[in-house]
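Practice problem: predict the structure.
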Amino acid sequence: MNGSEHWDTVDAYFGAALAREDEALGAALRESKAAGLPPIAVSPTQGKLLRLLAEIQGARNILEIGTLGGYSTIWLARALPEDGRLISLEYDPVHADVAVRNLARAGLDRITEVRVGAALDSLPKLADENPPPFDLTFIDADKVNNPRYVEWALRLSRAGSLIIVDNVVREGRVADPADTDPSVVGTRAAIDLIATHPRLSGTAVQTVGSKGYDGFALARVLA
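Answer:
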C-alpha cells in the first residue's frame, strides 16, 4: 500500500473503534451526496474530536461558520446540554436546506439554527443581537476570509473560548511564501493573526487520513 492507502486504512480502523457513525450521521452524508454537495465534510474521527473539544469546554453556545450538509454540525450539537444553542452560518441555500433536514432527522433542530447568507453579512447581524459569548467556534468556510472569520469569532467569544480553523495545511502550501493562491494567502493570514494577537494563544496540527494531507489550527481566547 502507498502512503494514502495506509492513511485511509488507519482512519477506517480508528473510526470504527472510536467514532462510529450512527444512522443520523450516515444519513447526513448520504443525503449530502444525493443533493450534489461536495464530499468535503470532516471525517468521523475529526467529527468526534470536535465533539470532545466542545464537551471538554462544557460548551453551551457554539458558532459554526460553514455548514455544508450539517455533518460536523451534528457532531458539535451532540455535545450541548438540552438548553444549549448552536448557530451555523451557510452561504449556499441548497446546502443549508440539506443541513436543516439532516439536523431535524438527528433530533437536533430545537437547539440548532442554520442562517443562510454570506457569513461576513450574517456575523454583524449576529453581533447586533448581543448573544451570549460562544464557548467554541468552528471555522470551515471559504479560506480567503479566514482572518476575518477569526476576528469575528474573537469578538463573539469570551476568555477561555476555543476557536478552531479547519483545512489550514493546504497540502503543505501554507508554508510556501511564494504561493499566492487566495485560499493559501487567507489561511496564512489567519495563522499570522493567531500568532500575533495578544488575546489568542494557538497552535496548528498536521493530519493525514481519509481527507488526505491537511490539518487544523486551535486557538484559546486569553481575555
